[in-house]
Amino acid sequence: MIRVSLEDEFGRTVSGVRVSLTDRCNFDCVYCHNEGLGDTRGPRAPADDELAADEVIRILEVLSEFDVERVKFTGGEPMLRTDLEEIVAGVPEGMTPSLTTNGSFLPGRAADLAAAGLERVNISQDAMDPETFANLTKSGAYERVLEGVDAALEAGLTPLKLNVVVFEATAEHVPEMVDHVAESDGLQLQLIEYMPEIAGHPEWAIDVDRVHEWLETRADRIERRDMHDRRRYHVSATGESDSTGMVEIVDPVGNPSFCANCGRIRVTHDGRFKGCLNRADAHSMGDLSRSEIRRAFRAVVATRVPYYGEYLIERDGEWVMNDEYDSPINPPEADS
Ligand SMILES: Nc1nc2c(ncn2[C@@H]2O[C@H](COP(=O)(O)OP(=O)(O)OP(=O)(O)O)[C@@H](O)[C@H]2O)c(=O)[nH]1
Ligand SMILES: C[S@@+](CC[C@H](N)C(=O)[O-])C[C@H]1O[C@@H](n2cnc3c(N)ncnc32)[C@H](O)[C@@H]1O
Ligand code: SF4
Ligand code: SF4
To answer: Which residues are S-adenosyl-L-methionine-binding (predicted)?
Structure first.
């Protein structure tokens, strides 16, 4: 098959897709932006508006015609989908599947997911103690998540990134999480800047530059990824051990270099394309026939623009909507 990749007007080739398989979740994290899908609604039977497994696979097959090389399954909580293994097994050849999950359903399923072809997994674990974890997630599943991490490591779903959202409630736990990954084989740490744009509570945000500065003093080596211009810090264990770990910072907020290198599009649980996590506008895939999926993909790529630096522009130190775009940005969600 001849594959033709698509570039947006800003020269950004679309090489990855994030698929939200559901907007449901069994946790209720205080910071949750839910990938811009609105409130998570609690665990309940699959909703009628969720894409079926064969529809997800058809979308991925079409995207692979356009040389999209990576798919990330996310949510809500993607492991609430009991057909996740079937979906992973249907990912077309040449496309690498990975998963971002809260980890609570990994015990007992990690091996099956690996057998289905899942390459690796990112697990949200914001702290090392059950109390902080419970306060943040409104869930008592701390031990279960740790078991999930072990199950994923055992199944070879590595490198395994632990995701920590950095904001006022987690900042003090960052050093122990850094030590933890430095000491543990197969674990990496991803520090995600709290995004108030879609979660609200701008007062919870902390200055991520302080975390960069601290890591510069803690790291032996620093590298920059082309993708999103992300910085990676290689750190050593502090005790007797000579093991090392890697810490990556995901800092999109007010960061035009992050958006300038963004090659990702999104598929929502109800079958629409979004060109940017932060934008409210989405493109329907109509009847989900291959031709409609192709049409919608071309349409969303044609309207993709870097969010910071283009969709929003800086005026007097504030990020304001560029008058060229008339669709509103996502209004902040209420507590979610
Ligand atoms: N604004 C924005 N945020 C992102 C983007 N990619 C990741 N994030 C943030 O990082 C969170 C965690 O995403 P993951 O899927 O675990 O991480 P990732 O870095 O995208 O995944 P890998 O690089 O595949 O490990 C997302 O839910 C977002 O909050 C992006 O392109 N734009
Ligand atoms: C919305 S969750 C969906 C997948 C899964 N339920 C999980 O928690 O990993 C995806 C990622 O978004 C991150 N996240 C959620 N709300 C955020 C916010 N307001 N700012 C930054 N990252 C956020 C979470 O930590 C998680 O790593
Ligand atoms: S961040 Fe928390 S509440 Fe949001 S989808 Fe993931 S586990 Fe659920
Ligand atoms: S905020 Fe920037 S990096 Fe994130 S999806 Fe939008 S354009 Fe891409």
So the answer is: 31, 76, 124
